[in-house]
Amino acid sequence: MKKGIILGLIFTVLSVFNTKAQDCDSIYRVVESYLITSDDGRAFVSDGQVYTAFLDNEKAEFNTTLYGNTVYRIATSAGTKDDYAIFTIKDMEDNILFTNKEQSNSQYWDFKVESSIPVKVQTELDTNKKITGCVVMMIGFLK
Amino acid sequence: MNIGKTLFFAGAMASFFILNSCGDSSENAQVQKEGGKKIDKELLDPNRSFNTTFDGKLFSVPSPVQTALLIKSLSIPFNETLLNEKENINNYSTTTSQAINLGIYGADLGYIKLYEQNAKSLSYLSIVEEISNKLGIAGAFDKTFIERFERNSNVEDSMLVILTDGFRKADNFLKENDQKNTSALILTGGWLESMYFATQLYKQSKDDKILARIGEQKQSLETIIELLEKCNSKGQNDEYISLFNDIKQSFKGIKTTYEYVAPETNKDLKLTTLKSKMNIEISNELADEIIEKIANTRAKIVS
User: Fold this and answer.
1) Per-residue confidence of chain A (143 residues) as pLDDT tens digits?
2) Which fold has domain A3-141?
3) What is the pTM of this model?
4) Domain segments of chain A as ranges
5) Rg (Cα) of chain B, in Å, rounded?
6) How many CA atoms does the CB half-sphere of B285 hold within 13 Å?
């Protein structure tokens, strides 16, 4: 009897784990498509990193440097069918340089950077649509 | 059917229903929670093991390819002596040394490809593949990757996209499988190698644009150290942290000033122009100090 309970529990836990991995993975593929397919056929070169976070009424953030004379694309998603993710770029003095909240939570946006600047990138879920879940973000640049 | 089998069957059925509710992201999969908010069932009760943040903090380091692009734009010729020697691969027996040198060889491969050194690129690609196998991330540089790489070996733009896609897949795999330290060390190696290129080529060319690029690394260096510290539960990064903290001491002497300028947004093009400016000042003495420290750190890591 104990063996049956243990096997059932193991099967359950493994199934849940596998499903969550697939969920993050499916979002990863959505975000990846925003870097590969640009509106005018340009291909963005990835910075080689994937920014993933499970959020629950909280924000995740990172600092980075955007180089001058470069066009970047920042893409994000928290679901395969809707605009659930919000991202905001601030300078180190906390001035908001951009937020996709003002652009209908657009899944991606391009940035032409005139001079190299350090910035803070924050991501969160639009709690009117989703309060907890996986958010994936990627950064690409034009060569 | 005995009780054990019944429970096993019940467990299997429960997992079946969980699988289905989690996999369904349609509108029908939403439920009403208190406060009237609609939440996807699939994202209730998230599995925290997938969280790749440290206390809500993520980490980002600019791609080493961007510094290689700057160097090439200045018409500085290809310099083979800057590359980590292929034979050094035999020196890397620990996971930490393999991971940090995978980042170094990856940056080398990007530099080689930018200068269209195709014969060399295949031999460095085989090194990247070999270390990836040792680290268990062969999936990122699998047969499909190698075929794409070889098929596009004369198309520089495609090559860069393919190469960085490979490293992004590796990064995703490592984070999902809770091997954050390996991911951190690959990033560290890539950053160090791009700094090695920049400092050595500045020594030769004295080009101000390269010097500015070196000064712009203040933020990235802080990120690297913070990341290595967060992943250092067993003290495996102690030596690296000490080396990079020594470089940080020199970076403290770099003077920066920032001027906020309002950005401009074009909604139709989905484009925002960031117009703020940062000025960097590095004295000749400080530049020499940084060049020496980067070279010494890199020599210790690749040897």
Assistant:
1) 556 555 555 544 444 444 445 467 789 889 988 887 656 677 888 898 899 888 888 899 999 999 999 999 999 999 877 799 999 999 999 999 999 999 999 999 999 999 999 999 999 999 998 888 899 999 999 87
2) Jelly Rolls (2.60.120)
3) 0.81
4) 3-141
5) 23
6) 1
Closest CA to B294 of B33, B5, B82, B148: B82
Residue of chain B whose Cα is closest to the Cα of A130? B39
CA pair distance B100, B269, nearest whole angstrom: 39
Query: What is the token pair recorded at A94?
Result: 């906390």
Whether residues B40 and A103 touch (CB distance < 8 A) is answered with no
Please give the full DSSP string across B46-102, using - where no structure is assigned.
--GGG---BTTB------HHHHHHHHHHTTPPP-GGGSPPGGGGGG--SHHHHHHHH
Distance from the Cα of A138 to chain B's closest Cα (Å) equals 9
pLDDT > 70 fraction of chain B, expressed in percent and rounded: 80
Of B44, B168, B222, the CB nearest to A49: B168
Interface of A with B in 7-66 (CB under 8 A): 7-9, 11-12, 14-17, 19-26, 28, 32, 36, 39, 43-54, 56, 58-66
Q: Chain B closest CA to A93's CA: distance in Å?
A: 9
Q: Encode pLDDT of B150-196 as tens digits.
A: 777 666 667 778 888 888 888 888 887 778 899 999 999 999 999 99
Contacts of A45 in chain B (CB under 8 A): 63, 65, 160-161, 164
With CA atoms as reference, the chain B residue closest to A15 would be: B15
Length of chain B: 303
- Of B174, B185, B177, which Cα lies nearest the Cα of B236? B185
Q: Which amino acid is at B143?
A: K
Structure tokens at B138: 């062969």
